[in-house]
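Aim 2 progress update. The chain analyzed this quarter is reproduced below.
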Amino acid sequence: MPDWLQRLLHGGPSSRGGAKPPQSGVAALVTVAVTPDDIVVSRTEGKRDRLLWSDLGAVGIVTTDAGPFASDLFWLLQSRDRRHSVTVPLGADGEHDLLLTMQARLKGFDNMAVVEAMSTTGNAGFTVWDSSWPND
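Predicted structure tokens:
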């Protein structure tokens, strides 16, 4: 995995509680559960990450040039203080429900940024929602 992507996913070397970078082919090994209170990401090796909706600060998409035979698009959900992040690969079980819920819950969710990210085949990052954006 490229260094720039690891830094983005971890928030740099001083980050605490950041999600580990996803591994190739990880989509089949990840399950996302969305409840009214939180987002829970479970991996087959037993690791679980949880982020409360009330603590969600930003949603981004990170793309890599690893496709089409490896996972190359990941949702990056960050806490308001940016100390905790959760990654979800495109195609993870429950990922579609996560997208629908974010579109419904997050005022100002940028669907065009999602479309742009989905069309990107290189290394890039896209912000699709941020809690600091105006709510009008």
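The chain has a mean pLDDT of 82. The first strand starts at residue 30 and ends at 34. These observations will guide the mutagenesis experiments scheduled for the next reporting period.
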